[in-house]
Write a structure and sequence with these properties.
This is DUF2750 domain-containing protein. This protein is an alpha+beta fold. The chain has one domain: Trna Endonuclease, Chain: A, domain 1. 44% of the residues lie in helices and 24% in strands. The chain contains five helices and seven strands. Strands 3-4-6-7 form a four-stranded mixed sheet. Strands 2-1-5 form a three-stranded antiparallel sheet. Strand 1 and strand 2 form a beta hairpin. Helix 2 crosses helix 5 and helix 4 runs antiparallel to helix 5.
Length: 130
């Protein structure tokens, strides 16, 4: 269930520190039961830096859309339902050695976690939202 973003909310979320953006992502992903990445006709995007491959994820399509430029100009936001993300994507990413860049923002540091860390954060948030 995609939530609606208001301009003030968007501005506040994007201006947060990497850790605050990570926490915002976890809260929103659990609440909406979805995560967003970017994909083109060849599949989802993966970036590589310092020999480490990562997939970027955001809590809403609007945040992901800001990255549709340059090498990713042919991409579109891709919604992934939480069940598929937790049960299929995260184990697959772990098996492939791909880490997750959570809610990246241009020219800012980003929190990068492995699948196990992300699963643990989701579990903690699910418990908190009960």
């Amino acid at each position: 269930m995609t939530f609606k973003i208001h301009d003030k909310q968007t501005a506040e979320a994007v201006e947060k520190s990497p850790e605050a953006r990570f926490n915002y992502f976890i809260f929103r992903a659990v609440k909406s039961e979805e995560v967003w990445t970017l994909a083109d006709e060849n599949g989802f995007v993966v970036s590589e830096a310092d020999g480490e491959r990562s997939i970027p994820v955001w809590p809403h399509a609007e945040f992901a859309s800001e990255w549709i430029q340059g090498d990713w100009s042919a991409c579109q936001p891709l919604k992934i339902e939480m069940g598929a993300w937790r049960n299929n994507w995260l184990p697959g990413l772990a098996a492939d050695g791909v880490v997750i860049s959570v809610f990246p923002k241009a020219d800012q540091e980003v929190v990068v976690v492995d699948s196990e860390e992300l699963i643990a954060s989701f579990k903690d948030e699910y418990d908190a939202q009960k």
